[in-house]
Model the fold of this input.
Amino acid sequence: MATEDGMDGGLEGNVLVAQSGGPTVVINSSLAGVVQESLNHGCIGEVYGALNGLRGIANGHLVDLAAESQHVIRGLRHTPGTALGSCRFRFQPSDLENAFQVMRSHGIHYLFLIGGNGSQIAVQLLGEHAAKIGYPLRAIGIPKTIDNDLAITDHSPGYGSVVKYVATTAREIAIDDQSMGDYNLVSIIEVMGRDAGWIAAGSVLARHMGTPFDAPHLIYIPERPFNDGEFLTSVQRVLENNRYCLVVVAEGIRNAAGDYVRTSGIKDPLGRTELGGAAEHLQFLVEQHLKIKARTTKLGIAQRAAAHCASLRDNEEAFQCGVRAVQAAVAGATGKMVTIVRENDSPYTVSYALADLADVAGKVRKFPDAWIDESGSMISSNFFRYVSPLIQGEMEVPYKGGVAEYVHLQGGKQFETNSGQR
Amino acid sequence: MATEDGMDGGLEGNVLVAQSGGPTVVINSSLAGVVQESLNHGCIGEVYGALNGLRGIANGHLVDLAAESQHVIRGLRHTPGTALGSCRFRFQPSDLENAFQVMRSHGIHYLFLIGGNGSQIAVQLLGEHAAKIGYPLRAIGIPKTIDNDLAITDHSPGYGSVVKYVATTAREIAIDDQSMGDYNLVSIIEVMGRDAGWIAAGSVLARHMGTPFDAPHLIYIPERPFNDGEFLTSVQRVLENNRYCLVVVAEGIRNAAGDYVRTSGIKDPLGRTELGGAAEHLQFLVEQHLKIKARTTKLGIAQRAAAHCASLRDNEEAFQCGVRAVQAAVAGATGKMVTIVRENDSPYTVSYALADLADVAGKVRKFPDAWIDESGSMISSNFFRYVSPLIQGEMEVPYKGGVAEYVHLQGGKQFETNSGQR
Done:
């Protein structure tokens, strides 16, 4: 922690911060936290950002974040995407030499990586290599993922906001579906979640029991095998009592054999199968077998970019994770990830701690069995106490000319075209 | 207009108001306008709402709107869907006898129908039949459609809000796409628009020229035949200068032969082909022919239900259309639709007028040729002056427990389950 005169007596050096993996609407808030807190510590000189995550560290594509205006740094608090650019790039041991050359030449002794699982593996790798070669480096991971599947931390920054948006959207779609109920209607919303059902489960917050808007009626997550026949039976059961049936489905649902119910057959740059069509699969089943109209909405990237509907609490926690990372590093920590520790549900209070990267990297936290109800197609009310605090408060976004207004780094010019990157 | 003492000397009678067709986020604001203005006129007694639109008029499923609380009527101003329920039901001449029986037994002499094209045909029919049988009825249509395809009126309530949401979402997705640009990426957003490209065209407001977020780069609307090869060439051209290509496509794009590029093969209750898969068709083209990753987002019902991102101006105009309909009817008008007349672009000012239903019913206003640029895949800047005023101002929605909070009619109990309707 900084002393009154701003002198820490800590390791003297510059900061390098990077963002990695898929964006969330609060990942830039963590970046703002790192930048703002770095300025509070006399032992820290320059604050650099690596463009396009790990790739920028290896390639030496850095920008001077301290040169950015206050307007831009403040604007990061509500801007979606990753202001520094991200990547789907796995740090290979062969990139290590380049990365340490870059850090050495820029006097970098503080490294912060804001990211999910894969990013935490990279932080671990860099920290271990630094120790091995005797390079003084404080490497700290800052959690980020809409998927909420990071271990140890109570929840991950980014998750609360996606749930707030998905729940609000599900409620709005429910109201529209209810309006059109002069014939049976099935409405299907596909949300993200390749391996874990955290996002789909969060849509349960849209339910407004005791009103006509008690939807979603069915929620399908990857933690339970999806069965076509059981799904159709469940839809019919819902339509006996309701004028419509709203279904929320995670993109990654699989059948009993463990196969995705439908895939596009395309592989992403990491060789992972691109998912697509969970909603279309359910739509097909309903229309072919029940002869009932089914509509689909696929929120896609919108759900992790909807900064105009972000959780204020999530945003503040994301910022704090950035701040705490800098404080921990100045105090001497390395090879750790910042975690959020829930102290109390109601009133909701948290503290921040550090986890060993070995306990986080490569681990996936599934949605707990205890929060899935017996039917396998609804989330139990026990989950409410966990998730509800995470979506509280509305982040205000400025609008200009009627459209939400976001910032971009002025120093990131070379990051605007392909030519600067290749 | 009401005189000072609230006495109009107008036709004495009760009001019946109904909502019809697909919802918008401001159709309930028009309903609130009708209810609130009706209370200002001494010649108006009861204010009834018909459940499920035209079907409720024919079946006599009415609710007493004057019995609803102030809280509910105020809440309608920001609640999506149709509070009275809607329908996809075409009013047949055989339903007329029932409808007039219902109106006669409830002393209804003022009829307001909030809806799009099909609804205006029904208003015309009811008005003409009233004249024929000598039943005193003032029948006025109130415009409503996200599609903005109603004739005569400068624009339709509902359009500004869907454009505000689509443009904000397109900008947010652009920022996310930009973040991930360590490899080429094509991102496709499918929006509504079966016959007209108004909604897709409105996404042009997301563009933020001179920044990295100058997307969408390509916009495809039904007014221009879609050509697979030209599309692929355009995508490649965009990717020469940008790290990603954001495409917005209307669901109703057709090839040169006039066929939808992809349909689900399913028919809706009116026998119209269900569209589906415009985005998937483009995704397929990009992935198969260019071997570039393509992502899709299908906003579906979310776009016409996103009250949390509604245009304040659109909302106020929708309310005013309800108010003006009542004022016109009390003053003696019938067989008309309220229209919005643009007086000036900047500063934007409008007045309200009445159009003959014969000039509106059954007409479709296409997106003007002059606003499509030469390439056929971008909207010209001339369109900005028209559309920009329509999305100004942010409608504030209350949040409760972290989720946007909406109202429902207390009198609409029978409307909550199928059993009450059948």
